[in-house]
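queue> pop job 88
queue> type: inverse folding (structure -> sequence)
queue> payload:
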């Protein structure tokens, strides 16, 4: 007492159980403190006297300590000693000691900055270092010089005395520290560490501790078990009940939970000492101040859930951590108050000694936004300079300012804004206060006050462990589909309606709720399952029973209503208007979102998690009160990290709402500024993010509003220079037409220096356009006024566009159409090296494709001939090339000679050039010396094949490949066209030769096998011939030459175009017919088969004789058995014999020629057939030997596989008919080479592999080309194919010799000729 009398601040350290909590207020009373000195010289009526303020960290502690002190003073509670906690005030006007939470005292600083209501303030349990305690300690230090009469006592059992003493140091030195002892009974410490295993966990260790403490039946006393959280308490309770049920002595023991969310009834059971033994399972709520009666033993798990705020992720974390030494000692101090105590610690002593001495103060692990806001409103200076007991980290301060900036409470200079000043007046978390302010503006204040008050208290819905399913079912009626915030409104509505009578509801809800009030016959109160009220109002007891029936905590409902009343009072004091109409879902949640901008989330794809602000990932809380899953975008009331980061208080939202309430926080980026022709202005794609979370992306915005200079530059470059402007202004069309003409000259001359570059055109527009013209609208507005003064405004001239004149670019040198296959085809020119269309592109109709000449395509057009000749001269070897130097002049001279009308386009270009080069150089230049494959692609004509509708069917520079791909379609199109024309005419030469007595050929009117056939017309006057043509049969067939002379070609007219057709005899089985074809090669093939059939019909008897008398037919059939039947073999031999006997060139074209050839060949047919049969027999014999050899060879599988593939390709099913007879004569040598090769394998397999490696690339390239051309081959390809066979003989059987020199190099050259 002397220290308290002499010093303004005293630090008291007393052991747990020393009685300091109850004795210090009585000592202050004994010193005359709190005895009623008036507040100032002129006290107001009803104003209390100065009293003793005594703070506790928790409400339950403040009320219980007040009761204990009142009992010790033997006075009624509230008369001398009372308490004030949130929503409860048990304090009379003349009371001298006021117990309260530190938060209550801190709130009183708003209206009483110097705390003049108190002459003594006792800060108890200061070791907890909550945010309120630290702020109070700093605040008290600030006001001490202005309140010399104020006494401050700071006390705790485990306080860091030196730190507190230095904090309150004055001119006289540090504050005095008094050590108090007073424990009556000793406490024994027992360390029982355990190792968590699959079959032994924390619950087993607690059960073993209980068995140890209650092992002696004489030992009485209850056990207090400290656990980190509610979930652990529930699990331990279930385990202990099961464990105790097996012990006859302990099965009657009661297991009770104790944590902050407990209902009042369950808390009362803890403090009721009547009954037998008890085990109280508590969180750290029982660690300080709160004394549970009857506790003799403590089991300490050594952990607690500690709230930490993450400045990086901006979330509250409730993680299980090891407690400090001070907290462990506080827990041990809970026992030994009634007898000798025992404290079992479930960790070892080394672990205890290694822990921190004191618990981290809350100011180092909490958000400081509320502290900063309060300091700003009280003008306490900067938070960095405030005398905290332990200064917060700079990161925490920066985070606090960031949150206030998010809420719009501070400006860029961290000074309070109007919103910030209003927030400081609200006794709420800044986030909740911001919601209320936003609701005021959006006419949702009525609903938000309910939700804000709900978020400020614990959830009123109870969920007892023994009735969880029933509680969930009872609470389901309050749930909403989309929002837990709306669920609070449903709950509030139910609470008001269920009371009955006239409900006291906010104005907005009165319009929504139509209360039905049915009454039973007996007049008793009835409440339906929907919670609708009856006519009579329920009594308090009935109402509380109804709440408990629905698992609603009565005390928390009272707190909720009190909080709502306080908020309503604040709103009324500020004269804020309560909305009379109900707020919509959007209005309500926009208001809530204003305070929760950092708590939004967007659902990740294929995951239950949500991506939140600053890259965090959180999950929907499993206890969320929603009937359905929330949408893609949600906002949550808080983010809490336990086993995972969970969002609690979930509501669905729309992303566009973020722009409405959080526009000041959005980080916007403009990407890809570009010209949009349709919009007529420069647009950019805007991307907005909120703390890294993409709110919208790709929004098209006007770029000129952000960067007019950049928009004008893009407008000129893209809209005017590139011509991407949709306008009727005359200057642009004229300029584009002029530019297109100059570009065409560039493409034809293959020069890029004719047209000026875009930079000069840009400079032209830039010089004339005003600075504010950056869109179509501004251009048209300016142009229409300015063109009246300058008629040629913005018009370019040809001289301004061209650097120099393009000489030699004439229509004759670069025609717009080319005559190809009798049809005028359009020609396009492009100078774009690397492009597929670079050079000359000719558009060829499909029906004329097969008649396009490769020889004519080599010549290109006169204007490009010089370039091609120059390029060909460059490919010559040195000797002839040296005699043509300078090459440009020689190329020009040769071009002039080849450009004559009689020469240009006649025959192959290389042959014509070869003759001139030989004459000019007197050197024997070979055709192969011109390396055509070395020419650039643009010197080869590019073909674009289109159908009758202009659709492209194919394109490329290889005409042979196009014909192979589209030849059959082209043939069908040609014959369809011939059918549409109805009648064709003979060529001039054929008609002259026919004479009056001969027949002419006309186009018939039927299709045979998909092709239109030809029918004969007798030579007669035109009118009679026309009538005769119409009368002819549609399906004429011939078994002898009775159709007159067959012309080589015929003409078909299409408009102004004339097509050439090629008639041919077509084999139809037992007869022939006449059809017209577009390709001479196809016509020739069909005509040979038709002639063969016509000859065979004339010599049926001779053919029958031959079929029966072919030599060695049976032997050949056996060897041919793996390929086909005997009849197929026999037919091939006869077909080849007929060809060699009757179809040697020139083929008959008239009946007389046919009969003469028939007589000539009839006599030699048998000899020829026998010769072919013997050749076939030899080939098949060698084939059988080679096949056996391949089958028997087991080494070098690659070589054997190659040989087998060679046999398959040489000797096919129709090898006799399909192979030219000159090559068929070499087959026996090729097959012998295969046998010799396999014989040599065993002796030198390495050599074979080496040669195969040289051969294989050529072989693969050829067969790949055959596949690309779908099996169609030309003469050059056939030549290359037989060179490959000769190369095999040269590689693997040199002793058989080859008829001509052959090597890989020669084949490479031959392949190069196939490339173009």
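queue> result:
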């Amino acid at each position: 007492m002397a220290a308290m009398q002499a010093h303004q601040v005293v630090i008291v350290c007393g052991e747990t159980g020393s009685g300091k909590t109850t004795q210090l207020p009585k000592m202050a009373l004994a010193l005359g403190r709190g005895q009623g000195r008036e507040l100032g010289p002129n006290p107001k009526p009803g104003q209390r006297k100065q009293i003793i303020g005594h703070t506790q960290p928790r409400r339950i502690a403040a009320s219980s300590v007040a009761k204990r002190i009142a009992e010790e003073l033997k006075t009624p509670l509230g008369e001398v000693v009372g308490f004030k906690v949130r929503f409860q005030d048990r304090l009379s006007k003349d009371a001298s000691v006021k117990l309260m939470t530190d938060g209550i005292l801190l709130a009183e600083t708003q209206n009483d900055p110097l705390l003049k209501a108190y002459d003594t303030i006792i800060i108890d349990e200061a070791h907890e270092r909550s945010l309120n305690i630290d702020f109070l300690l700093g605040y008290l230090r600030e006001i001490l010089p202005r309140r010399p009469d104020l006494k401050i006592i700071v006390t705790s059992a485990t306080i860091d005395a030196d730190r507190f003493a230095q904090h309150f140091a004055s001119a006289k030195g540090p504050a005095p520290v008094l050590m108090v002892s007073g424990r009556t009974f000793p406490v024994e410490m027992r360390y029982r560490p355990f190792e968590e295993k699959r079959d032994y966990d924390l619950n087993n260790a607690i059960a073993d501790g209980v068995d140890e403490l209650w092992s002696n039946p004489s030992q009485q006393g209850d056990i207090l078990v400290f656990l980190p959280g509610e979930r652990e308490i529930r699990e331990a309770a279930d385990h202990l009940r099961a464990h105790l049920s097996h012990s006859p002595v302990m099965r009657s023991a009661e297991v009770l939970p104790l944590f902050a969310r407990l209902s009042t009834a369950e808390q009362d059971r803890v403090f009721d000492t009547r009954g037998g033994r008890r085990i109280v399972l508590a969180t750290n709520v029982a660690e300080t101040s709160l004394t549970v009666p009857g506790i003799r033993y403590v089991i300490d798990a050594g952990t607690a859930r500690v709230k930490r705020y993450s400045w990086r992720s901006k979330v509250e974390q409730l993680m299980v951590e090891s407690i400090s030494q001070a907290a462990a000692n506080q827990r041990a101090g809970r026992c030994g108050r009634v007898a000798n105590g025992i404290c079992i610690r479930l960790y070892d002593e080394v672990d205890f000694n290694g822990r921190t001495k004191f618990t981290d103060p809350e100011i180092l692990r909490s958000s400081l936004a509320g502290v900063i806001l309060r300091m700003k409103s009280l003008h306490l200076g900067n938070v960095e300079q405030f005398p905290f007991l332990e200064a917060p980290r700079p990161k925490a301060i920066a985070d606090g300012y960031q949150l206030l900036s998010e809420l719009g409470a501070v400006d860029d200079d961290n000074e309070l804004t109007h919103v910030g000043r209003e927030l400081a007046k609200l006794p709420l978390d800044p986030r909740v206060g911001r919601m209320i302010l936003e609701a005021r503006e959006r006419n949702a204040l009525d609903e938000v006050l309910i939700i804000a008050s709900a978020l400020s208290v614990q959830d009123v819905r109870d969920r007892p462990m023994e009735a969880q399913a029933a509680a969930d079912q009872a609470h389901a009626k309050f749930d909403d589909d989309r929002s837990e915030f709306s669920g609070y409104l449903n709950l509030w509505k139910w609470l008001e309606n269920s009371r009955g009578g006239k409900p006291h509801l906010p104005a907005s809800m009165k319009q929504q709720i139509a209360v039905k009030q049915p009454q039973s016959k007996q007049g008793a109160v009835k409440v339906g399952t929907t919670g609708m009220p009856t006519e009579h109002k329920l009594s308090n007891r009935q109402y509380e029973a109804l709440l408990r029936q629905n698992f609603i905590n009565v005390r928390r409902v009272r707190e909720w209503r009190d909080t709502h009343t306080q908020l309503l009072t604040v709103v009324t004091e500020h004269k804020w208007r309560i909305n009379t109409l109900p707020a919509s879902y959007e209005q309500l949640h926009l208001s809530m979102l204003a305070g929760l901008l950092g708590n939004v989330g967007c659902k990740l794809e294929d995951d239950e998690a949500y991506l939140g602000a600053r890259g965090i990932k959180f999950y929907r809380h499993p206890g969320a009160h929603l009937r359905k899953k929330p949408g893609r975008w949600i906002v949550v009331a808080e983010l809490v990290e336990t086993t995972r980061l969970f969002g609690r208080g979930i509501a669905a939202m729309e992303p566009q709402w973020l722009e409405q309430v959080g526009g000041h926080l959005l980080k916007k980026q403009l990407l890809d500024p570009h010209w949009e022709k349709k919009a007529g202005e420069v647009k950019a794609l805007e991307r907005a993010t909120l703390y890294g979370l993409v709110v919208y992306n790709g929004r098209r915005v006007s770029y000129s509003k952000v960067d007019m200079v950049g928009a004008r530059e893009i407008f000129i470059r893209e809209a005017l220079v590139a011509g991407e402007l949709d306008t009727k202004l005359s200057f642009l069309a004229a300029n584009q037409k002029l530019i297109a003409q100059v570009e065409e000259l560039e493409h034809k001359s293959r020069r890029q220096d004719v047209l000026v570059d875009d930079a000069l055109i840009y400079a032209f527009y830039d010089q004339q356009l005003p600075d504010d013209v950056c869109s179509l609208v501004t251009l048209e507005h300016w142009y229409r006024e300015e063109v009246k003064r300058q008629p040629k405004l913005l018009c370019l001239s040809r001289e301004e566009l061209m650097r120099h004149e393009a000489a030699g670019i004439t229509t004759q040198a670069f025609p717009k159409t080319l005559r190809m296959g009798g049809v005028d085809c359009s020609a396009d020119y492009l100078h774009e090296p690397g492009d597929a269309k670079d050079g000359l592109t000719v558009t060829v109709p499909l029906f004329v494709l097969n008649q396009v000449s490769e020889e004519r395509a080599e010549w290109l057009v006169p204007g490009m001939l010089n370039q091609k000749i120059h390029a060909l001269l460059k490919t010559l070897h040195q000797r002839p090339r040296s005699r043509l130097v300078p090459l440009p002049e020689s190329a020009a001279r040769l071009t002039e000679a080849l450009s004559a009308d009689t020469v240009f386009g006649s025959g192959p270009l290389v042959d014509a050039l070869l003759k001139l080069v030989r004459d000019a150089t007197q050197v024997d230049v070979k055709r192969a010396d011109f390396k055509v494959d070395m020419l650039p692609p643009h010197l080869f004509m590019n073909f674009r094949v289109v159908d009758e509708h202009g659709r492209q069917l194919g394109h490329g520079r290889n005409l042979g490949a196009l014909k192979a791909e589209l030849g059959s379609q082209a043939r069908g199109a040609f014959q369809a066209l011939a059918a549409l024309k109805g009648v064709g005419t003979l060529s001039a030469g054929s008609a002259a030769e026919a004479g009056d007595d001969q027949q002419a050929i006309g186009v018939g009117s039927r299709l045979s096998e998909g092709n239109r056939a030809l029918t004969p017309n007798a030579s007669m006057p035109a009118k009679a011939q026309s009538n005769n043509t119409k009368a002819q049969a549609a399906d004429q067939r011939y078994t002898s030459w009775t159709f007159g002379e067959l012309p080589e070609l015929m003409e078909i007219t299409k408009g102004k175009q004339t097509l050439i057709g090629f008639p041919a005899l077509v084999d139809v089985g037992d007869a022939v017919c006449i059809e017209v074809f577009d390709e001479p090669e196809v016509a020739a093939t069909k005509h040979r088969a038709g002639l063969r059939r016509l000859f065979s019909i004339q010599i049926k008897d001779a053919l029958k004789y031959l079929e029966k008398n072919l030599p060695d037919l049976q032997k050949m059939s056996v060897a041919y058995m793996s390929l086909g039947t005997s009849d197929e073999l026999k037919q091939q031999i006869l077909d080849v014999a007929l060809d060699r006997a009757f179809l040697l060139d020139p083929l008959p074209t008239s009946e007389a020629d046919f009969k003469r050839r028939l007589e000539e060949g009839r006599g030699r047919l048998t000899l020829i057939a026998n010769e072919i049969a013997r050749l076939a027999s030899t080939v098949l014999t060698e084939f059988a030997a080679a096949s056996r050899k391949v089958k028997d060879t087991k080494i070098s599988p690659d070589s054997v596989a190659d040989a087998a593939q060679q046999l398959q390709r040489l000797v096919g099913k129709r090898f006799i008919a399909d192979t030219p007879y000159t090559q068929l004569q070499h087959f026996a040598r090729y097959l012998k080479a295969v046998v010799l090769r396999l014989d040599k394998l065993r002796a030198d397999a390495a050599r074979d592999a080496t040669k195969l490696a040289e051969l294989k690339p050529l072989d693969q390239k050829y067969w790949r080309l055959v596949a690309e051309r779908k099996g169609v081959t030309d003469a050059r390809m056939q030549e290359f194919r037989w060179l490959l066979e000769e190369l095999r003989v040269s590689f693997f059987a040199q002793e058989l010799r080859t008829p001509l020199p052959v090597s890989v190099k020669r084949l490479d050259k031959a392949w190069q000729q196939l490339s173009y």
